[in-house]
Every structure is written in C-alpha cells, then in structure tokens.
Amino acid sequence: MAKIESIKQYEGNVLDTIFFRPMLTGDNAEKLGIRVLYNVPAPTTLHFWRGNGDVLQKYTTRGWSGGSPSEKFQKQIDLTKVKAEMAYSAEDYFSTVYELIAARPDVNLDDLSGTELEAAETDIFRASIAESIRANMWYGNTERSEGVLNAFDGVIKKIMYDFAKSSPKEFHIEGYFKNTESPKWGENLLKELWDNAPCELQSLRSEGQLAYFVTTDVYNAYEECLDNVALESAYLAKQNGRDRLYFRGIPVIDVQLNGYNKVVGDMPTSFAILTDRRNLTLAVNTSDYPGTEVRMWYNPDEMENRQRAIFMAGCDYLLPELMSVGFGLPISDAKWKVEDGMFSFQAAFTMDEGAVRQIEVSTYGADGEYLLDSEPMEISDGRVSIEMEMEGEMDAIEFNISYTASGLRLVRCS
Questions:
Q1: Quick one: pLDDT band at residue 63, thresholds 50, 70, 90?
Q2: Cα–Cα distance measured from residue 154 to residue 314, given in angstroms and rounded to the nearest whole number
Q3: Are the C-beta atoms of 129 and 136 separated by less than 8 Å?
Q4: pLDDT one-digit tens code per residue, 310-327
Q5: N or C: which end of the chain has fewer CB within 10 A?
Q6: Domain of 120, in residue numbers
Q7: Does any domain span residue 83?
Q8: What CA–CA distance (Å, rounded) separates 23 from 44?
Q9: What is the DSSP code string of 100-159?
Q10: What is the pTM of this model?
C-alpha cells in the first residue's frame, strides 16, 4: 500500500464533535489566551457585564425602590465564510500519515483499522486550520490581495482602522522603538503600558483576567531582562528556562507570529497589548451556514490526496478602554537632536518597501504646546531624513505613520 484512498466527510454533528470542537475547546482554546465562542448562533454578539456599584440602601421603610438593570456592553462580530484547501502527493501523504500512526505506542501496525487512519488524517488537516485561524485572528486583513492571511480581519487591523477613524481619546496606543542598546526596553514597555492603562482596565486586575499579548521580540527582550537579575533564582531560570513569564502577576503571552512578518508589512510586526482576556474574542461557527463540511479524498487523476473545509470565522474586541496598546515603530537607528535652532531627525525603516507610504514628524514642548510639523516625507531607499527650524524646548515627538492598511498616530517622548 503506497497511497490512502479512503474518503472521509464530516458534516452536522460529526463535524462538530470530531473535527472542530476538540480544536476550539478545552486546553486548545486556553492556549490562545482569549475568549473563544464556538457555534454561538450567528450573528455572534459579544457581551461584557458590569456590576451596578453600590447596591446597598438603608432599611428605613417597607417596600422596594426598584433596582436599575446591570450595565451591559455588546458588540456584534462579523463572521466571514471561509474555506481551507490542501493537497499532497500520494507518496508524501502516505508517509506523513503513517509517521503519525507509527509514533503512537498504542497502535498495532500489523492491524491498522480505518479509525487510526482517520484520526491521523484529521490531525494533519485540523492542525493546519487551527494555525491559520490563529494567525488570521491577529494579522488578518481582507484587503490584502496576495492571498495570505486575508480570510477575515484580525485584531490588529481592527484596532488600527478604528483608531484612525475615531477620537484618539478612546484608545491608549503608544509607539516604541526596539532599543537594542537598552537591556530593559522590554520591561520598560510593559511597565509603560500598565502605568498609562485606562483606569477601567487597571480596576479589573483583581479578577485575574488581564494578560499581555506580545510578539516574540518583546517577549525575548523581557526574558533577557529577567536573566540579568543578580539572584540565584534568576540564574537557575536562565539555565532551566521558564514555563511562563509574568509582569506584576499578569501573564505575558508570546503570540508567536514571527513567521508572518514578511507577508504582513501593511501593519506593525511588533506589538504589545495589555487587555482583559474577555475583551478579545474569536468566533467560529459550523452550524448556521449551509454547506459547512470537511472532506478528504484521493484524486487518482492527479495522484494526490486533497482536503477541503468550509465554515465561518471572525474575531473582534469589545471595548477600546479595556486595552493599552504598544506598536513598534518600523524604524531603527533613529536619531534626533536640536542644535542652533534646527531640529533634525534621521532613521532607517525596517519594513518592506511599500509597507509604509509616508511619515510626518511633529514636535511638542514641555507644556504640550505644538511646536513644529514637518511636511509628509515619502520613504526612499528605506531611509528618511527631516530637518526643521524650531523655537522652544522640545519634550515629545509625534510620528504620523501611514501604513498600507491604515493611518496610525504613534507618540514617543524623547
């Protein structure tokens, strides 16, 4: 036997119980770190309840004064019809599936039943779909034409889009440089996000649902900072590794998206988000859309095994005031100075050509007074250089960076 010719099709309850539910519930869902809504009726609605605060009253007379309803926030997630498709040559598929079976100690290779084959095939396809859903949840952009991570809009795209079109006061977003010369830039970033987080977000710390969602560069920078602590426990942790990182008791979760940096140049590839886990939600639906199925079969004409799936998926956040966001500025070697009444700024861009359309630099004084604004500068050969005459002492710089996905204002104090 050099090929697998059996046909498998999951529909209805079988599609739910065998294929999708093991992937989106239990430990697998917890690894995402956010709320996962599976097969909630479409359109899916996010809910976030708040208590009424002080509900006690003096007992001075009989009867009741009548209570007010609890404050509730709702937002609808737009679910998108998506499909997944994979193809393997017959030989590659056969060896891959049998490798999974042979690695299991409870399988008798002399008496393979259809159950073991079905489980192995299902695991291969399910793992690919799970990874695609996870990546689209963060970096998805339906306007991306290359066909990579464009099934539905992800969290980063929604934050950038909403921020560009709404009052900046509704969001707390900061820009940061990956300062490799400072061993504490990762820790300083996490501290800055916490110190400047909205009070609504800070007040939820006692509920144990806050988390930092960070890219690998931020995660590694924070871990290196912990390694440099002069304690025996830090020395042992440096040798043995750490299962999880925490900052002031709040988990720091590596979203592990480095492999997609080259295909998502239309948005920041370095970020850190402090939020309540319940504020970010991934929704997958396999029951409210006719034609939802998973099919695996062998195509003798092409001598290959094919896998296909159709379902609905989407993600969103509920409240911007429950987020404190840091986006890494796509520049390196940034230098600026004020000398003889001239402000100069030079930097190199770390993103692919065309990812950032233009940049403007504004300067502000110590009292927040606007000082100077540069003309929009086009990016040329991966570098930008700006010089402006100015009066007064500069205290902050504001970068207005225009990505191909949307405009985004990022502020960094000097």
A1: confident
A2: 8
A3: no
A4: 998 999 898 888 899 998
A5: N
A6: 8-49+73-141+286-315
A7: yes
A8: 19
A9: HHHT-TT--TTS--HHHHHHHHHHHHHHHHHHHHHHHHHH--TT--SSSS-SS--HHHHH
A10: 0.80
